[in-house]
Amino acid sequence: MPASALQCPNLTVGRHGVSDLNLWDSKQKIRALLEEKGIQLKKRFGQNFLLDPNHRRRILSALELPAGAKVWEIGPGIGSLTHGLLEMTGDLTVFEIDHGLIRILKDLFGSSISIVEGDFLRTFRDTARNSSLPRRIIGNLPYSSGSVMIGSLVEEDLLPDVAVFTLQKEVADRMLAQPGGKDYSAFSLVCQLRNRVEKICDVGGAAFFPPPQVVSSVVRLRRRPDAPEGPQQDYFTAVHDLFRSRRKTAANNLKGGGLKSRYSWESMKNAAELSGLDLGRRGETFSRDEVLSFTRALSDFQSPEAS
Ligand SMILES: C[S@@+](CC[C@H](N)C(=O)[O-])C[C@H]1O[C@@H](n2cnc3c(N)ncnc32)[C@H](O)[C@@H]1O
Predict the structure, then answer these.
(1) Pairing, β 71-74 against β 136-140
(2) Which of 7-11, 110-114, 282-286 has the least mean pLDDT?
(3) Is 46 in the pocket of ligand 1 (CB under 6 A)?
(4) Burial class (CB in 10 A: 0-12, 13-18, 19+), 36
(5) Interface predicted TM-score (ipTM)
(6) Distance 211 CA to ligand 1 centre (A)
(7) Atom 15 of ligand 1 has which residue's CA nearest to it?
(8) pLDDT in tens, 246-299
(9) Is 37 in a helix, a strand, or coil?
(10) Residue 103, SS3 per DSSP
(11) Ligand 1 within 6 A of 75 CB?
């Protein structure tokens, strides 16, 4: 752990020398900071900063971070969580899109953190390729793109053993939903492929500045011991096919979906029979295990054929 990282938790760097988790605990402090730096908040980046030290503590402890382990933080903003993370590790990479906020982060944390500048969706693959993978990922995610970020991490199989995200409650409800439930969606099946998803808590708008109109939830994704390795492209395509139309049967959804460009209808019927999948059921009733058995059976058909 670099020595500089060890000094940072007490905020010996920067001019806003306030202690530990009380950093940015009032809207007045945040307003003053933004004014001093001449920064206007940008709605499109979902910039709502966490004020409440109790929620910060809860979110950080949900991460179960082993001391010194490598962490990625998505969207650190003005460092509401970053500071607490640095108390636990000196190996912290943060991804931030806003140049004004990046200036603040540099001022506050100096070389104690590694900052990847730009859109996370464009930078995370190269970052993963060019350095060791994180053991934890955390993020209070922007409302507009949080689900795309999580979906991309799952599809690239880059989620570590534990990840903790704060997002819009409706999105969290979809991640947690079970077959047949009203929130069950393709996104539920994507998130549940390699992870068990659990809710840590809800967070009301008053815990943030500026306060969002919606309630947020904190969720933890824990990697399943039986998480399948490798790309799993057929699984993701099947999941999206099965939810093409909620009213249609799996058969009808699959017939017009993306898997059809890789496998004949005959192969799909055979795979369904082999894996015990009833194609007469609605797509939205299938569990993660059922879809996975189906796509595993499908991959046994040696060369995917277009029909
Ligand atoms: C909800 S704020 C969270 C800020 C801070 N982590 C907190 O808890 O107070 C979301 C943060 O994500 C950043 N952000 C938005 N879109 C991004 C993207 N595509 N890539 C990287 N950062 C992004 C925003 O600038 C903002 O700092």
Answers:
(1) parallel
(2) 7-11
(3) yes
(4) exposed
(5) 0.99
(6) 15
(7) 45
(8) 889 999 999 999 999 999 999 999 999 999 999 999 988 999 999 999 999 998
(9) helix
(10) helix
(11) yes
**Rounded Cα gap, residues 6 and 65, in angstroms:** 16
What domains lie within the chain, and their CATH numbers? 5-223 (3.40.50.150), 233-299 (1.10.8.100)
Checking if the pLDDT of 25 tops 60, the result is yes
The model's pLDDT over 53-85, given as tens digits with 9 standing for 90+, comes to 999 999 999 999 999 999 999 999 999 999 999
Q: Are 37 and 104 in contact (CB under 8 A)?
A: yes
Q: How much is the pTM?
A: 0.92
Asked if residues 160 and 149 have their Cβ atoms less than 8 Å apart, the reply is no
User: If we measure between CA atoms, which residue out of 188, 168, 166, 193 comes closest to residue 176?
Assistant: 188
Count of all residues that appear for the chain in the document: 307
Q: What residue type is assigned to position 272 of the chain?
A: A
Q: What's the 28 CA to ligand 1 centre distance in angstroms?
A: 20
- Three-state secondary structure call for residue 20: helix
Residue 24 one-letter amino acid: W
